[in-house]
């Protein structure tokens, strides 16, 4: 039996040469709707102290997230495990690339203690890519999940993982640890992959998300993209269909912001009205939840979104009963 995924997986990988990064390209001025205040609150300072005292890394800092002030004020943080150095060099990402250090066996316990000290009801755990490890860091992810479960059993756990490309059996290890939400971001449309995400493969990522559902249908699946990288509207709509063909529950869409002049330029700033239309279209395509706005990020409002996800699934089950 030939599935939709079989068809798209065998399709040629296209590239738009006009989208390639031009070092001398003009840096666009940020519109008013994308501007945020500098973090100065007491809550922000307290969260920063907890993170530093536990010698932990957060993607909030490493990726220069614009929502760090808002999230840290509420004592929300996304922990980035397995070090600060990534084995890949994506054109959009501000995380350092190089040769990573060895895994820290004490890290799962430190993360769990920080989650407990911060009183988190929902936590997001992500990581750098670790292509240097035989399992891509899958066992470390599982150990972190188990440590959090032991320390705070009521905390729901969301993970944002690498693609585990060419790591046989890695995904199964992570899914067996039973996170509540499994997130893996596509980041952009397939025509941008050679210039934006050259170390990844679009259809491998689609298949990864589909496989999670096959292994454990109770786990919510989630994926996100950035816009403003030169993609066409129809490409975004096709990407939505690809995610739905993999039974993905939740999609996030946010504005790409260029971390430095060395990174891929912002081709354009998408308007709030366009983001709203993507949300509406995504819901009609069958996602349980779509978060779409200029400042939307994978883990922004993750706890509130998880509650909305559960409510949407319950409503869907009642409707089909």
Automatic annotation (TrEMBL):
Principal location class: cytoplasm
Keyword Ribosomal protein: no
Gene Ontology annotations for the cellular component aspect, listed alphabetically: cytoplasm
Residues binding [4Fe-4S] cluster 2: 86, 90, 93
Reaction catalyzed: [[Fe-S] cluster scaffold protein carrying a second [4Fe-4S](2+) cluster] + N(6)-octanoyl-L-lysyl-[protein] + 2 oxidized [2Fe-2S]-[ferredoxin] + 2 S-adenosyl-L-methionine + 4 H(+) = [[Fe-S] cluster scaffold protein] + N(6)-[(R)-dihydrolipoyl]-L-lysyl-[protein] + 4 Fe(3+) + 2 hydrogen sulfide + 2 5'-deoxyadenosine + 2 L-methionine + 2 reduced [2Fe-2S]-[ferredoxin]
Subcellular location(s) of the protein: Cytoplasm
EC number, UniProt record: 2.8.1.8
UniProt xrefs under CDD domains: Radical_SAM
Keywords, comma-separated and alphabetical: 4Fe-4S, Cytoplasm, Iron, Iron-sulfur, Metal-binding, S-adenosyl-L-methionine, Transferase
Protein name from the UniProt record: Lipoyl synthase
């Amino acid at each position: 039996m030939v599935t939709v995924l079989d068809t798209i997986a065998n399709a040629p990988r296209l590239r738009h040469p006009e989208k390639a990064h031009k070092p001398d390209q003009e840096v666009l001025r940020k519109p008013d709707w994308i501007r945020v205040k500098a973090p100065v609150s007491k809550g922000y300072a307290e969260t920063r102290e907890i993170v530093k005292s536990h010698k932990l890394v957060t993607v909030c800092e490493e990726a220069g997230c614009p929502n760090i002030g808002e999230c840290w004020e509420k004592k929300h943080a996304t922990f980035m495990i397995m070090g600060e150095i990534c084995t890949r060099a994506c054109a959009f990402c501000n995380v350092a690339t190089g040769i990573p250090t060895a895994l820290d066996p004490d890290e799962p316990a430190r993360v769990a203690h920080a989650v407990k000290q911060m009183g988190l009801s929902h936590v997001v755990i992500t990581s750098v890519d670790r292509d240097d490890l035989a399992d891509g860091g899958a066992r470390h992810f599982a150990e972190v999940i188990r440590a959090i479960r032991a320390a705070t059993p009521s905390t729901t756990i969301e993970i944002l993982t690498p693609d585990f490309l060419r790591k046989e059996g890695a995904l199964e290890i992570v899914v067996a640890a039973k996170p509540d939400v499994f997130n893996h971001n596509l980041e952009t449309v397939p025509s941008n992959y050679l210039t934006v995400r050259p170390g990844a493969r679009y259809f491998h990522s689609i298949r990864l998300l589909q496989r999670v559902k096959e292994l454990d249908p109770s786990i919510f699946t989630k994926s996100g993209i950035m816009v403003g990288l030169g993609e066409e509207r129809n490409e975004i709509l096709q990407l939505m269909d690809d995610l739905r063909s993999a039974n993905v529950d939740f999609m996030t869409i946010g504005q790409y912001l260029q971390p430095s002049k060395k990174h891929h330029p912002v081709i354009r700033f998408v308007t709030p009205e366009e983001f709203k239309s993507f949300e509406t279209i995504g819901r009609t395509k069958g996602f349980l939840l779509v978060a779409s706005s200029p400042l939307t990020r994978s883990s922004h409002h993750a706890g509130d979104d998880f509650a909305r996800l559960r409510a949407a699934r319950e409503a869907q089950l009642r409707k089909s009963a």
